């Protein structure tokens, strides 16, 4: 079974609304990573080259105050998009009303209108039925290509397609579903998952599901200390979610033989100003010290478990990789994955994707998802509302 795709639509001369994820990191007016804009280009260019009149919708940032609005003006994305595509791009500083409607009406075949930030509308994140219906009225067809946002049931991701007949996924969503879907439903084995990051509570669903599906689950990062504590280890002032210790115990019980935890850890006396850094065995952290990275013995152990893997899914750094003193574990794991022979290697967005990019290994991975939250929810086995709303062929 596969979803209706943009290729199944007759788009010539039609107004096609495309929900993209242009939620790009930016400092002031400068976009610091334009990957999400580039990732949407195959769909955008296909549509313009085939004579569609394209209306692009996206959110940018989280909008609570007027200051948030000013900081997340979509016009900065319009400028970058115009540099990346040969189709004409018109930015409309409105999310509804005459200016937007007239700009859409005046479109020539093969042109693009990019609307202001969808979250300038309060009804967007509430999936206000009136808003979804109104946006749907601006087009003849709808294409869902915002993979990073398909776990959100918002007016632009779910409201619009619920009000339209001609709906499809774009090439980016199609590719993400193919790669992640293969790992989840029919992985080449051995399938090894590496999970890190700060908190167990953010990763409960994914640990649970991957313990069922993967052959091995390797756990590092801040969340590994809750497991160490649950094992009766000493963890000093490391990150601890005491209310998740029982769950960690349950995971260790269920995952016997396939769940691997750090055997050593890099510790420091202070997070902000570490003056004493050393490596100790896991569960033997002295009082007043905190664990901030996996140690070299853990790297070696994880490398052993990764040897021969045919599918790898990685989400979450192994330590506080933003600080060079505690980045080694994440760097070594990233390098190991980049060098794995004949394996499908997938990064589930977020900080692990930034780490791979910063280290210059991005092109060594089979797939780096454009969605952090979305890829995690998918790997948890959850239904993604923005995908569910698009029919199967
Ligand atoms: N041992 C640790 N102690 C404190 N924070 C940690 C530790 N290991 C990793 N982190 C932090 O976890 C954060 C990333 O976690 P998370 O958001 O769950 O990952 P991702 O974005 O890849 O899903 C990073 O900011 C990193 O510094
Ligand atoms: O950046 C995003 O999510 P991600 O950081 O989980 O990849 C998406 O654009 C969704 O944004 P949101 O979490 O504000 O709804």
From TrEMBL:
Catalysed reaction equations from the record:
(2R)-3-phosphoglycerate + ATP = (2R)-3-phospho-glyceroyl phosphate + ADP
Its Gene Ontology cellular component terms are: cytosol
* Domain of life assignment: Bacteria
Question: EC number(s) of the enzyme?
Answer: 2.7.2.3
Q: What class of enzyme is it?
A: transferase
Q: In which pathway does it act?
A: Carbohydrate degradation; glycolysis; pyruvate from D-glyceraldehyde 3-phosphate: step 2/5
Write out the GO biological process terms: gluconeogenesis; glycolytic process
Single GO molecular function: phosphoglycerate kinase activity
**Which of this chain's residues are annotated to bind (2R)-3-phosphoglycerate?**
36, 119, 152
Q: Where in the cell is it found?
A: Cytoplasm
Listed A to Z, the keywords are:
ATP-binding, Cytoplasm, Glycolysis, Kinase, Nucleotide-binding, Transferase
* InterPro entries in alphabetical order: Phosphoglycerate_kinase, Phosphoglycerate_kinase_CS, Phosphoglycerate_kinase_N, Phosphoglycerate_kinase_sf
Chief place of localization: cytoplasm
Binding annotation for ATP: 203, 291, 322, 349-352
> Which positions does UniProt annotate for substrate binding?
21-23, 36, 59-62, 119, 152
Which family does the similarity line name? Belongs to the phosphoglycerate kinase family.
Descriptive protein name: Phosphoglycerate kinase
From which source organism is this entry?
Stecheria intestinalis
| Gene that this polypeptide is encoded by | pgk
């Amino acid at each position: 079974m596969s979803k209706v795709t943009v290729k199944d639509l007759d788009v010539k001369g039609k107004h096609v609304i495309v929900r993209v994820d242009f939620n790009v990191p930016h400092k002031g007016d400068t976009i610091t990573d334009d990957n999400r804009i580039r990732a949407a280009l195959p769909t955008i260019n296909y549509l313009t080259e085939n004579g569609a009149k394209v209306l692009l919708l996206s959110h940018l940032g989280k909008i609570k105050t007027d200051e948030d609005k000013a900081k997340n003006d979509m016009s900065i994305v319009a400028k970058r998009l115009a540099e990346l595509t040969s189709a004409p791009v018109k930015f409309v500083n409105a999310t509804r009303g005459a200016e937007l409607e007239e700009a859409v009406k005046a479109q020539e075949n093969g042109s693009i209108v990019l609307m202001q930030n969808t979250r300038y509308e309060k009804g967007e994140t509430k999936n206000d039925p009136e808003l979804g219906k109104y946006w749907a009225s601006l087009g003849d067809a709808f294409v869902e290509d915002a993979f990073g946002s398909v776990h959100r049931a918002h007016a632009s991701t779910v409201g619009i397609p619920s009000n339209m007949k001609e709906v499809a996924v774009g090439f980016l969503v199609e590719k993400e579903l193919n790669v992640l879907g293969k790992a989840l439903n029919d992985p080449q084995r051995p399938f090894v998952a590496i999970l890190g990051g700060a908190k167990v509570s953010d990763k409960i669903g994914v640990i649970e599901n991957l313990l069922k599906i993967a052959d091995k689950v390797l756990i590092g990062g801040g969340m590994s200390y809750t497991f160490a504590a649950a094992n009766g280890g000493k963890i000093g002032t490391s990150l601890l979610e005491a209310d998740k210790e029982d769950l960690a115990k349950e995971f260790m019980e269920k995952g016997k033989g396939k769940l691997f935890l750090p055997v050593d850890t890099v510790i420091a006396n202070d997070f902000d100003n570490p003056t004493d850094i050393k490596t100790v065995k896991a569960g033997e952290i002295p009082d007043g010290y905190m664990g901030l990275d996996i140690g070299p013995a853990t790297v070696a152990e994880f490398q052993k478990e990764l040897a021969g893997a045919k599918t790898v899914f990685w989400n979450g750094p192994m330590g506080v990789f933003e600080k060079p003193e505690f980045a080694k574990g994440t760097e070594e794991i990233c390098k190991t994955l980049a060098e794995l022979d004949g394996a499908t290697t997938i990064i589930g967005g977020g900080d692990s994707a930034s780490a791979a990019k910063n280290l210059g290994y991005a092109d060594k991975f089979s797939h780096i998802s454009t969605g952090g939250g979305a890829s995690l929810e998918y790997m948890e086995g959850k239904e993604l509302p923005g995908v569910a709303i698009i029919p199967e062929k």
